[in-house]
Design brief:
18% helix
């Protein structure tokens, strides 16, 4: 996923088609939440102008993440469309649209792999739930020394046993 500026300029006004699969196992080291990641498939095209190369990419794959409630493995699909623009000279900084990212080139080589790594890492959600958790209406309703009571289920006539002695307090004053 590396191209030199000289290579790219040969295809100026023609473009290049991309259809590659890359291994992203090193992402498990960068984010310990990723338990496994499939090879990432990158498909798209490169539009090359006189001062920039614009990559229109469709990134697909799958990663295994822990369920936020049960810590079971959850398959999370990766399906990202992105537009990344590399400027051949940093002085050509122009902002065209909000849906594209501008990157200056360090040296004479465009390396797309670190950009794709960052895009995939940013795609990881804060919480992932397994199908079992999503199909269950609620989690455990009670435990040792506690019980979940929904507000609509609370009986207003029921007196807290700790306050039962106070229930007749005003009745005794009237006698």
């Amino acid at each position: 996923m590396k191209w030199s500026i000289v290579q790219l300029k040969k295809f100026q006004n023609k473009g290049i088609e991309i259809d590659e699969t890359i291994d992203m196992e090193q992402l498990k080291m960068r984010d310990p939440q990723i338990r496994s990641i499939s090879p990432i498939h990158i498909k798209g095209r490169v539009d090359i102008g006189s001062n920039r190369a614009t990559f229109h990419l469709h990134i697909t794959g799958e990663m295994i993440l822990p369920c936020s409630r049960t810590l079971e493995d959850v398959k999370y699909p990766i399906d990202i469309h992105t537009k990344e623009t590399f400027l051949f000279q940093a002085s050509d900084y122009e902002f065209e649209s909000e849906d594209e990212e501008l990157h200056p080139i360090q040296g004479d080589v465009i390396d797309l792999k670190p950009i794709i790594e960052e895009i995939v890492l940013l795609e990881i959600p804060m919480q992932v739930y397994s199908e079992d958790v999503l199909n269950k209406p609620t989690m455990t309703q009670s435990g040792k020394g506690w019980e979940l009571i929904e507000e609509k289920e609370i009986n207003k006539d029921k007196i807290d046993p700790r306050l039962a002695g106070l229930a007749n307090f005003f009745n005794e004053d009237k006698k």
